[in-house]
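Predict the assembly for these two chains.
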Amino acid sequence: MAEKSSNESKEQKLVGLLAQFDDPETLVHACNEARESGYIKMDAYSPFPVHGIDPAIGIKRSILPLIVLSIALGAVVLGMGLQLYANGQDTAWPFPGYKFLISGKPIFSIPANIPVTFEIIVLSSAFATFFGMWILNKLPRLSNPLHRVSRFKRVTNDKFFLLLESADEKFNRSGSESQLKGWGAVSIDEVNQDLTDNELPKWLTTVGILGAILLMLPPAAIFSQWGQTNRHPRLHVVPDMDWQHKSKTQTVAANLSNELDGVRMMYNDLRSARRPVDGAIALGSLDIDSELNYGIKSDFAYTITSGGNALTGVAGSQGEKKEDTGAITVPAEQENIEKYVTTFPENFELTQEVLDRGQQRFEIYCAACHGYAGAGNGLVNQRAMALAATGGATWTSARSLHDVDVKDDAKNPVGRIYDTITNGRNNMGPYKAQIPVNDRWAIVAYVKALQETGIQSDTPVVEDK
Amino acid sequence: MHETRPAKITSPIVSLSDGYVRTIPSALIVAAIGLVLSLILSGGTERFLYVYLTNFAFLLSICLGCLFFVIIMFLTRAGWSVTLRRIAELYAMCTLPLAILFLPILITVLSGSDVLYPWVNGGWSIHNSDGALAHLPADQLPPLEQLKAAFLSPGFFSVRWIAYFAVWGTLAAFFLFTSLRQDKEGGIQLTHRMQAIAAPALIVFAATVVFASFDLEMSLEPFWFSTMFPVYFFAGGVLSALATITLTALWLQRTGRVTDEITTEHYHDMGKLMFGFVVFWGYIAFSQFLLIWYANIPEETFWYDLRINKNGWKTLSYVLLIGHLFIPFLAMMGRTVRRNKNIMFGATIYLLVMHWLDHFWLVMPHYNHAPGGHVRGLATTSFLTMIGDVACTVAMVAAFIAIFCLVARTRPLVPLQDPRLGEALNHEVH
């Protein structure tokens, strides 16, 4: 509509001369002539790849392969490093990893890491190729002045073009034109760049702002519900995932028909999982060392043989823990103190690191009730006692670890402390599910250390810490 | 300045011409001497048969790779490779004469000797944990192995191999003779016919190669499971077929034949294909290894255990990993390398040596576990025995060259009137 007038009104800059040729041979010929005349800044355009055009316009080999190669090599380092960082090692800050033991494979093993590394190489190489090509070609471009030349439209059809850029040192408006004619150009056009071309169209700005606002609506809706309660049932976007046709562990499914949509729900004995083979022992649960695993002298342990595998148990270890009966303190059964080990087990090595670990575990699991100094005045205990005093609750105070009875090695040997942590005592619950064997012994060691230092039992918890 | 070449053959010599007459007798003499020498140095037929099997598998995989090359070029209607296709067609045709070289293996099986394959006598010969040999009758095998035992019988084995050679021979003959007919008659109809056959041919090819690789090399250890093995056999075969085609073309040009038709551009593209198949081989080799390594099931892992932890085979395993994958991967990446005929000449020979080692690695560990042989690993092999292995290899390769010369004779080494000849002659790598 306003093309003509706007062209005149806008500021123009000569980009170069665009010569049209009728066949690829003439184009290659012209390119060679131009190169030999000393032109450097030029480009050829054709509807299909023309043989020999690359050397004719003096294009050098692209550095893209080198870019891709170096990025791919970087990806090897990245891929391997990521896996080493994530689960190959177990150091403290700044790179704490997760040493996941998977199928008994080494924590960091090259074969297992190759697929991930390979995928990262492929992905990064693809990205390097794609975006490297864009960057090397100075893409994306919002406009190209060549498209203002109407003849140029046939470049995708049947015409061939050579552009001599005005930025070239050899370029000379009239001289270049006559040279092009001499090389067989059918027609020559001036290519002018509209300096306002590089500006964003106004409608694009409006659309962009509108789009950005629309995009912000969903997160805004989510943030508006932040911390709010809602009486509506939750939305089930993918019902198959929320109600999967599967049996869960330790359950008998309600539909005993065993079939749901053709999926067998469980085994014929109505279990949802197979029982282990008789005598099978789960990885890491072979506890034949009664001193280490139970804190009990081996003379008092018994061994049962089942299916060729030896299992060790400890007499009475199951019977000592009573049901939690709230306020009523169940008196401990007459127990045989003799059976507990009085020294740390052989297979437990006590070092400063282990002791520090013991302190850390103690402060996580024990200090809540027993207090950081073991005085029996942890926060939970204080609060519960305060509630109990007003009749709001019933509570038995946590023992102070500095009590004479508790400190006495004869009455409370380390094996018994270990057993207390493992199976609980009186109102204290068992911690064997939460704390692994070695950590329990580490806590025992820390408790003994606390008792030795003899911190006063009335030290306030907060100051103590 | 680039000019479009007319679709015409311009080389003065386009066939082996009378060269083949001189080559065949000397090659056959080398083959005969080599085989006798190898039999003597191997100290009996036992090791000799294993080395023979290694070489047979090596040569067969090359021929099958060439057949695949021909089929795939027609399937993709490729124009660039037309001038290289005849060499592949001739090598593919060598599959049929290779059946003669298969006879020693077939006779060993039919004579009831379980020297090579432990399944020959119905039951399987296996080694106890103390290394002593035991014979397990077929009805005492585990259930899955009983199914395998039904498949692995000398009679059915022979029938299958006749079928394989019939199928490969028919396919190779069809492509070679149709292509030769086109040399005389010209025209696009014959190309259309070969393109139409290419797709079903590829299916038949795949099915036969899968079972042939089971029979030839995997059944040396019939207890083992791997569905990846045929692909591994195929990947290595195509890689060495590409190397063989390139090497043959280079050799032909050095001796003044087909000088104009095969250009640097073709070597460049063959180099790319070889690079691709080096990666493919590594990918497949690793895929086979990773699944077995990860699942860690004894009936699969023992095959790798033998090659990694037993009798000095670990060295060869690492040689393959580095020499068959890493070195060619890095070396063949560059454009300069692919476009340099001298380097390509060395590279193709290197790849063929690696492929031979690959088959050695597949076959020979079972020799150490063969009846009568216990712990005879790579490290304990004597120098003279190794010379015997090399003699056998030289003999087999010489026999193979004789076969190629016999097949090629005075036939043109490039298609003379292929409709896509012009495209191939003007091929240019971008």
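The interface with chain B takes residues 28-29, 32, 49, 51-52, 54, 56, 61, 65, 69, 103-105, 111-112, 114-115 of chain A (CB under 8 Å). Chain A has 16 helices and eight strands.
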